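Entry 14. Structure prediction run on the chain below.
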Amino acid sequence: MCGIAGLLGVADEGVVRAMTERIAHRGPDGVRVETLIPPGGAAATATLGHARLSIIDLECGWQPLHAAGSTVIGNGEIYNYRELIAEHGLEGALATGSDFEPLLHLYAREGERAFARLRGMYAFCLVGGDGRTWLVRDPFGIKPLHLREDARGLAFASEPRALGTERLTQEAAEELLALNYRVSGRNALAPGEVREVSGGSVEGGEIAYSARAGGSGGPPLSTPRPPRGRASAGSEADLLARLDAVLEDSVAVHQRSDVPYGLFLSGGVDSAVVATLMARLNSRPVTAFTCGFEAPGAPDERAAAERVARALDLDWRETTFAEADFWRVLPEAAWALDDPTCDYAVLPTWKLGEAARGVLTVVLTGEGGDELFAGYGRYRRALRPRWLGGRPAEPQVDAPWLPDGGRGALARWRSKAGRSASTLLDAQQADLATWLPHDLLLKLDRCLMAHGLEGRTPFLDSEVAAFALALPDRFKVRGRWGKWLLRRWLERACPAAAPWARKQGFTVPVEAWIAPRARELGGRLGRHEGLAEVCDMAAVRAAFADDRASARRWPLLFYATWWNIHVAGMTRAEAALQG
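Output returned:
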């Protein structure tokens, strides 16, 4: 895990070092910069920078990494590197224990086909000994890679801040204030995208989704889909046994680390599944962090998390999030999210990262469980007939401050969602293409990397996806229950998790914390320059004047704070709007 940056087609170590140092929080163990010059004294092909967070092979895993005539810098982890070494007989060829070195040897043998063999989360630049240069991002979009192209060449980096200030387009800002995340206007590699850079031109493609580690995969797809001929059919007992095997295998490879690891534990099904498997696979108690909210009437998952922790003998640690944390963390999270999302879950995620820093370096989380096993209520609503309250599983837009109320943002979201074989799979695929990479994974990456922590998501694994997405609908949704098969598994593996108990939706009580200052904030935000570029300011003022509109206040407050930092250039202290 780290931050990467580079210039392709030009040599400038001063520029690349400055780029890399802007994202040094991602790699606090050190920065290295190197210019690649081909044999024979030809012009430089690239200058590459790497800020390292040491996870695997602490001594020899520094990058840029050279092997088999090629060079790579990468952000993330290739989890199946040991299997690739064994399967392709690479043991005697390796000079390091890095998870990225086997990729270079495979590339020397089979070129870009090697990319489809990778199982993991990654964004990397590979400069091949064959004269070809590649930028690659993992199929789920867990790790980011942003781009800037100008007359000098192509620059890339793990975060936009390394490339210089870039204002949101009007469309992107509208999407952010209507959907809470944006689906357009992002100059970055898409999930699963592969780009070849040569001769000053950039050619795009998509990585072939491989259902089996090391397999040949299927047609190029930007989001994982169930491979043909591998439908997860069978009796419930058979499927539960297969689910157990695929989940244990994923958690096992996601634990591969030479530094301390643990997990974030909520009171929900997904993190309880990860915790159960980690407890099974580790001889010592696994460290788990939980965040609870200090606000009247706020949902609090600490009691449910503690029951699971006691049943599994976890080293459980709780942290609280109160009103003072809200005003302190808001500008910190806005700074971390240089590529913004208005999801209020950024607040506890940032606080959990702060709590875990110094105790853990790697954190496993439950992101992806709802998307792959159909846990959201909107999926169940999409399956009902309209006369029983059914409606499409798409964002519900309520943005009266936008000229069109957010209808344009919703139309652009629909254009990204795509269609597949069933209503339920349509909804899952839409979230895999939009909500997951542009909100949940973006939030996790920035809020943990701000603290020098690596976040890993064992549900977002090729083997888990191949199994889960191919399940018949009845094993995903049954009656009022989503994640049917996952709940059945957890019922047996960790009854203390109470998988059939009615759960409260995850809610951060931002409305309660904003309300006492609503009048003052309405006055300040009602004349805010950044909001005025996008919004009807009378509607902004109305949101803070009418308590019935309290749910509309958070995205306006977050966007204004974000704009103050990333557009107006304020410090975090200056950007705070709490009086």
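The first strand starts at residue 2 and ends at 8.
Filed with the rest of this week's runs.
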